[in-house]
Amino acid sequence: DPHLSFMREAMGVMQHHDAVTGTEKQAVAADYARHLEVAIRACATNTKEVLNQLTVDTAASESATESGRRERRWATGPKKEYTFKFETCTLLNISSCAVPEKADKFVLTLYNPLAQTVSEFVRIPVPDVNYEVKDFDDVTMETQFLPIPAPIQDLNFRKSSALYELVFLASSLPPLGYKSYYITKTSGNAMKPVPDPAN
Amino acid sequence: KSSFTSIGNEYIRLNFDTNGFLVTVTADGMTRIVNQEFVYYEAAIGNNREFRNRSSGAYIFRPAHDQVRSISLQPKLKIYRGNLVEEVHQSFNEWVSQVVRVYRQQHHAEFEWLVGPIPVDDGRGKEIVSRFNSDIDSAGVFYTDSNGREMLKRKRDHRDTWKVKLLEHTAGNYYPITTKIALEDDNARMAILTDRAQGGSSMGAGSLELMVHRRLLHDDAFGVDEALNETAYGEGLIARGTHYLIVGSSQKQQSPTTQAIERFTQLRKLLPAWSFFSDAEDIDYADWR
Q1: Which helix (H) or strand (E) holds A151?
Q2: Each residue's pLDDT tens digit, A10-55
Q3: Which B-chain residues 224-283 have CB contacts (< 8 A) with chain A?
Q4: Which residue from A27, A105, B209, B236 has the fewest beta carbons nearer than 10 Å?
């Protein structure tokens, strides 16, 4: 609860019309961003707890079904709890994110806050074009790599090694639920995206 | 006939002409003229001692003239195609660029703009607008959202409850857009969704515009006592954001209707999935599974 209260207090400050509309001075905007950043970091513990809770619920309901691959999978061994640190990328607005830029193996967890199933195209800033995305069912996802536009790469305050964005379709995200994807850097030489020849 | 390239899918196709501008959009079995450009209003320099003659500033939008100025006559294009998304990277000048993209099986097109730092070496404040002109005969009527809920009918140079004569034609027709602005005629409909609150209007038949960035050199005397002229990182601010364009039939009877598509897209874009990244160097795929 103290972690959540940190976020509650930050959100209380964000009720000010300047924080909502962006009419504040830039130094004030930066301070609002700092408040939110600290609060989001504080809530990482809550994120882990909630996702573990969802995993427990899912396991319980799926093992109760009479047939299906999931039931067999859950039944094969003890369920493992998430021990990950869940990081929110607050610099995605400049196509930058520390985890995919540094790690060769990382997990993306997507939580759907809507009360309906949705599919969403995901864009992840990455330094190279050789990554493989797998879902929980051992299915390799179709991916595409696009260059981060030059004006973004050239921003002088952007400290990022990401040159490309990895795009894939996260399909059928359950309502008020989540899906995770395991993303690995591969050793192969992949084709870099090239623009259409000038016509 | 002059269009030289296009991006799209089975629901929506965007055609670009030889000058690098969007010229038509094909959706719902019809092709409509829709072009998009970045223009700017020159900010008014007023006399702050007179209430009706204040400068354009943090609190008020007051262009010096109703006429807009073009930003670029021939943007440079790069086109990337793939199995999931097709993108056009447009570079208008040193401080305005944009990526237009259409994802597979989506009914909308994305316009991700990057504007700034706005040059003010000429001593003039500038208010940058993304403008979509179409051949839809909207007759001065357009719709803006009420905080993401119902849509409110607006009519250019008109107020519902009194006879108005606007002394400031442009600013007097601007309205707050929280999520959506739209117009239509008997056949077609065009809507733009925003990713943040912006000012917007329809300054001509079939035209929609949204203000994306501004840099001003004079205070408007409403209290802040400073010009809206930020110089973080040693130069003017840079803004990045996205508009979502949806074009379709206004008469569509079968589901989903164009307005239903707009509503679903609005929900999904304003309340997207939350992304959490975790380093997995210490866990292999089998264990993770």
Answers
A1: helix A150-153
A2: 999 999 888 877 778 888 888 999 999 999 888 988 888 887 777 6
A3: 226, 230, 232-233, 237-238, 240, 267-268, 271-281, 283
A4: A27
